[in-house]
Amino acid sequence: MTYEHFAPILHALGMAQAKKEMLDLASMAAELDLSETELEMRLQEIDARGLAFSGLEFEGPPMLLNAGRQYLALEGRVASEALDFLPRQIDDLHARQAMLHAGTVLVDEFRVAVLQGRGVAHAQELVPEGFVEAIDESRALDLFSAAVALMARLSAEEPAGCVAEEVLAVTLIGGAQAWLETQAEAGHLDAEAATSAAGEVHGGLFDFFQDDDVLDMFQMREPSDASVALGSPRNQQLGIADQRIEEWFKPFGGVAPTGYLRA
Question: Which helix (H) or strand (E) holds 53?
């Protein structure tokens, strides 16, 4: 994807959005001196990268997304990985880059800790305080597997596959927000842009997961609190997942019980 190829199309989509005009493929192709086939291919790629809704897939006026405006402002100076990471879920290129960085740190630091015999201690730093005492060597190793699986799923634009992965997603969010803050302090990123991206990291990921119930676990004081919560009318009414530690590695519906996941 090159800036020269896509910038004129993004500008045209932005103008159509402002005018609330439906996409006219033939007219846009003529204006941009492209064949309709070539324009359609580029629009499909723009849609796939989460830069705009062209109107090809869903009827309605085109919509230039925040990520598309950022792409134009940056004149295309964006890592290809950031364009491809959660493009339909995270509408902020800085947020995507921050999550990629945080994901690398999450897995790398956990891997080093396991190799150095500090797996249990490291895993205990990543889970809610109330569950620290329940983390043994076996669960620590499963949590490392969950960290790897979480990033693999997100790279494939799939949500967390179990409670353990959602727990680690909280660390991922914190790491991404910390990286954005560091970038702003170093002058690499505007403070307002960093704040906006941090909000998108949090809100965008939990919207993708369709809830933020995992945050309740960080208020629990001991593992048995999850059993109490399971039986509460609120949790039953809302359909909140079983957060007891013996259920952390049970796959959510639709996720295959394979690898470290056990039915």
Answer: strand 52-53
